[in-house]
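#struct-help
A.M.: can someone run this one for me? Single chain, 304 residues.
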Amino acid sequence: MEYFLQQLINGLTLGAVYGLIAIGYTMVYGIIGMINFAHGEIFMIGSFISLISFLILSSIGAFSAVFAILIVLLVTMIFTSVFGWSVERIAYRPLRDSFKLAPLISAIGMSIFLQSFIQVFQGARPKPLQPIMHGAIKLLEHNGFAVQISYLQIIIILLTVGLMIGFTAVIQQTPLGRSQRACEQDRTMAALLGVNVDRTISLTFVMGAALAAVAGLMFTLYYGVIDFFIGFLAGVKAFTAAVLGGIGSLPGAMLGGVLIGLIEAFWSAYFSIAYKDVAVFMVLVLVLIFRPTGLLGRPEVEKV
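D.P.: on it. Structure tokens below:
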């Protein structure tokens, strides 16, 4: 039971990171009906920006761990959001009214470009980071095995829940959220009614990039090592989480991320770790067979 509880904590932490990335996927898809396959690389860029920021602050050496994390979080969200806005402005907006495969090809090309950009300017070798936050709370101990949750895991889980609640409130209760929902239903009619469609879509990309920046920072702190390729696998799993929970649903994206994190943690603990990704995608296949819209997704109704 102790081992099970420890893996439950680890799975929830990993699922929180996947859920933050998945929300970015589902927000963009909900408005323009396009999968932003470069979103994983935005997460990767956020990880590198956070690493560079920590190295700069450590060279100064005048900040506590909590204060340094807050500064890096703010810097990472700002710069990563600029990348998200630039990607939408350069790669997606000119092709928005083109045939459906054009934005998809552009997204894949942008993903490859961002990978290569980071590989050239930061190198291909993994970049380590010394632990920033230490300490844990011991929950219970039996036969020499202690179940504990670190302070960093607590921060990751609480921050993820808070961001999901905050962004859900923004979409449901603010003028920006009403504009986003209007664009989701009919962009042409929304534009006729005075909604600035271009600005709404750009802000959606910025919001998704900000969430990916938080996920990148948490990933860097939690694992302590990053490279230019982490965005690909994390992006694929986050996209899987969005589909699993129901593409277009923010709570569904978070639920899918948590489920994938739990599947990975428990499979790695009780079975062969080499097949943890196979287990994740097998669950996705089963869900799509028996519930094609995902766990919290709603079937699309086309009006004629």
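A.M.: thanks! The chain is about 75% helix and 5% strand.
D.P.: also worth noting: The longest strand covers residues 136-142.
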